[in-house]
Specification:
CATH architecture of the domain at 257-349: Sandwich
Family: Belongs to the cytochrome c oxidase subunit 2 family.
Enzyme class: translocase
Function: Subunits I and II form the functional core of the enzyme complex. Electrons originating in cytochrome c are transferred via heme a and Cu(A) to the binuclear center formed by heme a3 and Cu(B).
Structural class: alpha+beta
CATH superfamily of the domain at 257-349: Cupredoxins -  blue copper proteins
Number of helices: 11
Helix content: 25-40%
Transmembrane segments: 41-66, 87-112
Radius of gyration: 28 Å
CATH topology of the domain at 257-349: Immunoglobulin-like
CATH class of the domain at 257-349: Mainly Beta
Domain Cytochrome oxidase subunit II copper A binding: 128-246
Bound molecules: heme C, copper (II) ion
Length: 356
């Protein structure tokens, strides 16, 4: 036994590593909606069937090894031959067929059900019946467009709870993949076609998960792939309606001298050529090469990964490369002094829906 101490201590480390899993905002094992529930159920069902097969086969295997070992039955014994035994042949053909049927029926039914996006394609669809969100994945950030409300946001997906939310997904540069581990996915975002699916966000379990769910890019897309995160904020249907109204009536004015200075710098320093600062920027495509910053003041993270405090926002403006290698903002604007970054921060943190 002690011969294997290395292996055993390695295995002892496994629980330690796995103890990091299972966070409700990030785990497929803590499903938080209809789609995640069904995917979880299929995972459990198929695992269970596999475990039963492995256990039964192992028991028979070891029984035979022990029972018919040479030391026990003697050198020249030949056990009873069962070749061509009809009963056995039928048994071990029928059992796998039954197991496959048990597995296939729910898999096919759920696959068809989860692929049903017909409500989003209906003519005269209303947002109240089937809310549609267009997702666009970019190196290394996410854009969410609400076509019914003429709203574009980035990095944070706002969704109503307890209803199906339909997604149109594509990518603007390379292939990415959209994944909210506790709610569902993954689904590829491609450059040459749109994928569609729906998700639901359970209100009760959303509350338990905390302020937001984590979303991830699940397709290796470049050096900052692992940092291509987004957050999902589920709101009650009423709160969601309020949010769309706030965003529709979005109007920003800088609150103080420093913020006004920041606003001017934002134009002077070339930032505005990439970033929109209104949820319905009329420059449309040109303003969609970078995250829409209209609600930057409400984001919990900067660039999707660092807490959006002053220090981190300034660090991002000073040298985005040090935070996200290979990102598309590095080197596209003139160098900023400390005072300029203070002003820009003051301006950016004031960008909020509902700010007047
Ligand atoms: C060439 C286009 C371009 C220019 C010019 C540019 N940015 Fe960016 N910016 C981006 C891109 C692309 C990202 C997303 C990077 C990522 O997350 O991979 C970004 C991200 C950001 C973020 C983080 C957004 C978020 O939601 O977390 C802030 C803040 C920001 N830029 C501010 C500025 C400021 C201020 C300027 C001007 C000094 C500026 N940007 C100039 C393209 C640009
Ligand atoms: Cu990616």
């Amino acid at each position: 036994m002690l011969k294997h101490w290395r292996l055993i201590s390695l295995l002892a480390l496994v629980p330690l590593v796995l103890s990091g899993c299972g966070k409700p905002f990030l785990s497929t094992l803590k499903p938080a909606g209809e789609v995640a529930d069904k995917q979880y159920y299929l995972t459990v069902l198929s695992t269970l069937i596999m475990v039963i097969v492995v256990v039964v086969v192992s028991i028979i295997f070891f029984y035979v090894i022990v029972r018919f070992r040479r030391a026990r039955v003697g050198e020249n014994t030949i056990p009873k031959q069962v070749e061509g035994n009809r009963f056995l042949e039928i048994t071990w053909t029928v059992i796998p067929i039954v197991l496959l049927i048990v597995l296939v029926i729910p898999v096919v039914l759920y696959t068809l059900e989860l692929a049903d996006t017909s409500p989003m394609d209906k003519k005269n669809r209303k947002a109240e019946d089937a809310l549609v969100v267009n997702v666009r994945a970019n190196l290394y950030w996410w854009e969410f467009e609400y076509p019914d409300y003429d709203i574009v946001t980035s990095q944070e997906l706002i969704v109503p709870t307890d209803q199906r939310v339909y997604f149109n997904l594509k990518a603007s540069d390379v292939k990415h993949s959209f994944w909210i581990p506790s709610v569902g996915g993954k689904i590829d975002t491609n450059t040459d076609n749109e994928n569609k699916f729906f998700l639901t966000f359970d209100s009760k379990r959303s509350k338990e998960a905390g302020e937001y769910f984590f979303g991830k890019c699940a397709e290796l897309c470049g050096p900052s792939h692992a940092l291509m995160d987004f957050k999902v904020k589920p709101l009650s249907a009423d709160d969601f309606q309020d949010w769309t109204k706030e965003m529709k009536n979005y109007k920003h004015t800088s609150e103080n001298e420093l913020a006004t200075q920041g606003e001017e710098l934002f134009e002077e320093k070339n930032c505005l050529s990439c970033h929109a600062v209104e949820p319905n920027d009329k420059r449309a495509e040109a303003a969609r090469t970078a995250p829409n910053l209209a609600s930057f003041g409400e984001r919990s993270k900067v660039a999707g990964v660092k807490d959006a405090n002053k220090e981190n926002v300034k660090a991002w403006l000073k040298d985005p490369e040090s935070i996200k290698p290979g990102n598309k903002m590095t080197g596209t604007y003139p160098e900023l002094s400390d005072a300029e970054m203070d002003a820009l921060y003051e301006y950016l943190k004031g960008l909020k829906a509902g700010s007047k």
